[in-house]
Structures are given as C-alpha cells and as structure tokens.
Amino acid sequence: MDMHTVVVGTSGTTAEEVVAVAREGARVELSAAAVEALAAARETVEALAAKPEPVYGVSTGFGALASRHISPGLRAQLQRNIVRSHAAGMGPRVEREVVRALMFMRLKTVASGHTGVRPEVAQTMADVLNAGITPVVHEYGSLGCSGDLAPLSHCALTLMGEGDAEGPDGLVRPAAELLAAHGITPVELVEKEGLALLNGTDGMLGMLVLALADLKNLYTSADITAALSLEALLGTEKVLAPELHAIRPHPGQGASADNMLRVLAGSGLTGHHQDDLPRVQDAYSVRCAPQVNGAGRDTLTHGRLVADRELAAAVDNPVVLPGGRVESNGNFHGAPVAYVLDFLAIVAADLGSICERRTDRLLDKNRSHGLPPFLADDAGVDSGLMIAQYTQAALVSELKRLAVPASVDSIPSSAMQEDHVSMGWSAARKLRTAVGNLARIVAVELYAATRAVELRAAAGMTPAPASLAAVEALRAAGAQGPGPDRFLSPDLAAADAFVSRGGLVTAVEAVTGPLA
C-alpha cells in the first residue's frame, strides 16, 4: 500500500486511513481476501433466501414490520424501498469529509464478509469514493440506533443512481448523471443488501475519528499557548517540574507539563513572580494548566481506544457468522461511541474555559504584572484586544451549552420496537461545532499571548526561542495587520486557520522537537 491508496481488508481499518480517505482523497481498493469473504457470505445469504423459513433482513420486513414474510418476487423491491423510504433526512448538508468517512467505514464493514453484500456492490462503493462523488446527506435524520439510518440511506441512494450528489468539481447534480460521467453502473440491490448498506454507526464514528485528529492538534496547541501566557505573565515554570507530576501519575498531565516546560526552555521571563509585585503562587488558570489539559488528553486516549475497537468492528443486523449462521443482534446501538462523543464535548468546553481565563488575565492591567491595559498600543485611543476577548468569551459560553450530553436522551421510534436510542449522531454533530469553536478560542489566546511576549521583549526581557518562533509564524500567517498599527485590527480568522491547520505546532516543534 502506498501513501495514496488504502487497501480495505476483512479486519477493519485505522483512524489514519479514515482521515486519509475523508480529508486527503486517498484511493480505496478491496483486498483479495475481502472479495473472497464477500463472495462466501453472499453464498450463505442466497442459500437462506432459497429456504421457505423466514430470515430477518433476507426474507422479512424490517423493524416493527419484521413479522411479515416477503415473497421472492418482492424482495429486490423491498431492498430498494428501504433505501428510498429511509433517505428522509432534512436540514443543511453534512460536510464532505464526514460523508466520505461514513461511506468508507460502511465499505469497511461490508468488506468484513459479515453482511452478505455481493462483491460488486462493495466495488461500486469504492468506485464512488475514488471518483470523488459525495452523496448529499442532511444534518437531521439519525437517532444513533439501528445505525445512522437516514445519512447512510442517502449514500445508498447514490449507489442506486438516485438522489443528488456532489461531483469532484463541487457542483451538485443528479447521482445518475455523475455515475454515468465516471463510468459507474448503478447497483440493483437484492436480498439483504439494502439493509446492510444503512445499518451501522459509521456517521458518528467518522465524526469521532475526525474530532480526535483535530483535538490532538488543539491540545498540543493549548499546551503551547498556556506556556506563552505563563511566560508573558512572568509566572514560574517550577510548577512544571517532572517530579511534581510523577507523584500524581496521570499520563496526560505529565505530557502537558513536559510540553510546556520545553516551550519555555531558555526563557528570561519566567520566575519573576517574586519581583515588584510578589506572588507566592500563580493563578489556577496558569498553575493548573497541565492538570486541566492533561485530563483532557487522557479523555482523548479513552476516545481513541473506543474508536479503534469500533473501527475493528463489523456492525450490521443481521450478521453472517462463521459456519453459515445468520443472527440478529444489537451491535448497531451507538451507546459506546455516543458516550465518548459527549465526553469530548465536555473536555473541549473546559479547555476553552481555562484558555479564556488566561486571556482575560493578560488583558487586565491589575493582574498582568506590568502589561498595558488590553495589550493596547495606546490605551484609550485604541481598545487593544478588548473585543477579541469578548468574542472568545462568547465562544466559551457556546461550548458550555454544547457540553450538555446528547446520549442521556432517548426518543422511542418504530412503533416502540426501537424504544431506546443513543442519539450518537447528535452528539457527534455538536462535537464538530465544539471543536471548531475550541480552535478559535485557542487562537485568541495565542494572539494575546504573542502580543504580550512581544511587549516584554520590547521592554528588554528575553522570551524563550520557541515563543519567538510562535510570534514570527503567527505574523507570517497574516494574522497581524500591516505597519506599526498591526495589532489595531487583529485578523482572528487568520489566527484560527493557523492554529486549526497545525501551523502553531509545526512552528514551535521546529525549535523544541516533537511535542506530545
């Protein structure tokens, strides 16, 4: 496998492969083992379909209608109809990377050989991904139980040549037109296949994997901004000593403290807390940054564990088991993924909150230890970063609302057959918003902290080399205005892009080496 191709086998996939397909447009290929497993499982389904006894999903209706036996002449129509009827989503379009992630992971489950889907259907799924065709999927329609039904149904419509999809040029057109333009023949679904294409946790899992990738960058970025704020506030780095964190051995805490200590190496600003305005200790938002950031890091570790397990899973109902058994099950329930999505929204809110507290401290002349009010060039004539902090505070408030768990809710559906649902898709959607807001919050702290570090340097003090690298990289990213008044109109959108795309981490690691 080269860096541009992901080979899908029978044993699941990795988070890195999901990101490569969803964001980087990596090509997808089915392994020979997957094709063999698909064919073997299909033989099992066809043998069961030929028997007079009803088998759920093969020769029966679905959900509350599972008690009806479907005659052979109506089974292909049944599979088409379940896709058409379940493609009932509403609201704004879901992002392209999310749709690609859920399509790829549905292909991953199909390729496991536990769903009974024919090899040619799996190949069509790969062909659609490789052609850059993205089904139009809507925001609302999944309860996170029996899978992300509506979102996956809209994807299955595209495979059938129905509904709308976005082409590689970004234009939305009828799916049949796009398939024809790329030489892809629409699939004609037969027994079990319609159900198998829409009965999984792929949407919520895709968003979890993408959020984990983004949060890894943001937690490292937040360690850097916390170190810059500590430095600009003339705090002490002694609280970052490894022996202090060894006696409370949470791995994330130790990693965050080490990151901060490495960023501060060579600083002439730290340790001045006993100078003109003596402080026995720094404020909690400064002193306890490793504890808060580290607890979030440990939550990410748990999230990756759950994601890795789900990425190795084959989620469908019913499933084809070794020996030719086909069994109904409840593995489609999204609770394991939904809980983690909610956990991550909570830690994102808390990380955003502590970032904002440090920003406010940098801007308050009564607590900033000699910095000008609001870091203004001429306080009173201009307001400095006053309103940047307002924006940050509004984002933090929104994060707190987004931290309210979705997974504690449940609305029964399907005539009480599906009477307890996970709401995992909803948890994933709000986490995506939370992650975007967190990047903006970190960017505001970075802007304030680098401004404060520059002011300290102008006063004759010596910032850490890594801090100066962050200052220069942020300026090069275009976040500051031109000329002597460059801080008067901060480009916070440019700062956000710099942070969210990993620019801050890259700039600092050029000095410190790889950070956790």
TrEMBL record:
Pathway of action: Amino-acid degradation; L-histidine degradation into L-glutamate; N-formimidoyl-L-glutamate from L-histidine: step 1/3
EC top class, as a word: lyase
Keyword Transmembrane helix: no
Domain of life, source organism: Bacteria
Pfam families: Lyase_aromatic (PF00221)
PTM info: Contains an active site 4-methylidene-imidazol-5-one (MIO), which is formed autocatalytically by cyclization and dehydration of residues Cys-Ser-Gly.
EC number, as in UniProt: 4.3.1.3
Keywords: Cytoplasm, Histidine metabolism, Lyase
Catalytic activities: L-histidine = trans-urocanate + NH4(+)
PANTHER family, A to Z: HISTIDINE AMMONIA-LYASE (PTHR10362)
Listed name of the protein: Histidine ammonia-lyase
Organism in which the protein naturally occurs: Streptomyces flavovirens
Gene field: hutH
